[in-house]
Amino acid sequence: MTSSLEPAAVAHDATEMFEAQRPRLQRLAYRMLGSLAEAEDIVQDAWLRWRRVDPAGVQSAPAFLSKTVTRLCLDAMKSARARRETYVGSWLPEPLVEFDMTPDQDGLTLTLMLALERLSPLERAAFLLHDVFGVALDEIATTLKREPAAVRQLAVRARQHVQHARPRFPVAPEEGTRIAEAFFKATRSGDINTLGAMLAENVVVHSDGGRKVHTFLNPIVGLQRVLRLYDGLRRKLGAQNDGLFRALKIDGLPGFLSHERDGVLQTTALQIEDGRITAIYITRNPDKLQRVVGMET
Q1: How far, CA to CA in Å, does 292 sit from each of 208, 258, 266, 283, 289?
Q2: What is the pLDDT along the chain (297 residues), one digit of tens a residue?
């Protein structure tokens, strides 16, 4: 099938088709890879491939582009996983920072994204495409070059593995901001009593410095260990009652951007359940914070 339109008109329509899908493709690639920079490269590669296609011969542009991006991501995940095996310290996704504090419709929080890291690439693709982006099983089967029954099993296994990471009760935006600000003030001032009242007994702290800045290599688990961590930071760096605080939503979780007492810019995301903080995700690796530089002002 060929188009009767002039080449310039065809190119214009093809560009409009792609740009209409770009936000969804960008989100899909980011959810697959955990890196905004790599997601942008994948989407750009998909655009270059799309330019070589006659849109008139494509039955569904969204389906075609989703398939292209997914397959590119699966190829990229091979090298990405190899790099993470040699990553120094905890690895966290590049923070997706938003000022709109309302919960994301897809329900994919940072906690759930980390759970997705434990899936095989095909399980991750099946789960994201089916459960998050609403793609039909037959279409996913074509994308993954598997039978629909096999894709269904991939999605079921993935769902079972990540079920525990789904938030039971979404935190209201105002409550999330309030807790984030109170946490920031308590850690800056060294108010260990207030901090202890905010944290769950099984709280865990993850910190990603990528060997670029000072951080702790392994997760800190348990209320008393976390309190000793922050008390030690207060003793080493001193208490401070001011400093940059910018409330943000970070991968669906309430959090904030801050300049810490050692001068390092960082994002902090908080997993909150039943009014208590159960997990703290700190990103200090400057390579992952290039997009938030300038948001301090």
Answers
A1: 15, 10, 9, 11, 5
A2: 444 555 555 566 889 999 999 999 999 999 999 999 999 999 999 999 999 988 888 899 999 999 999 999 999 998 887 788 788 888 999 999 988 777 666 778 999 999 999 999 999 999 999 999 999 999 999 999 999 999 999 999 999 999 888 777 778 999 999 999 999 999 988 899 999 999 999 999 999 998 888 888 899 999 999 999 999 888 887 777 667 889 999 999 999 999 887 778 999 999 999 999 999 999 999 999 998 887 766
Amino acid found at 101: M
Q: What is the CATH T-level fold of the domain 173-288, as seen in this structure?
A: Nuclear Transport Factor 2; Chain: A, (3.10.450)
CATH number of 110-166: 1.10.10.10
Residue 6 and residue 51 in contact, taking contact as beta carbons nearer than 8 Å: no
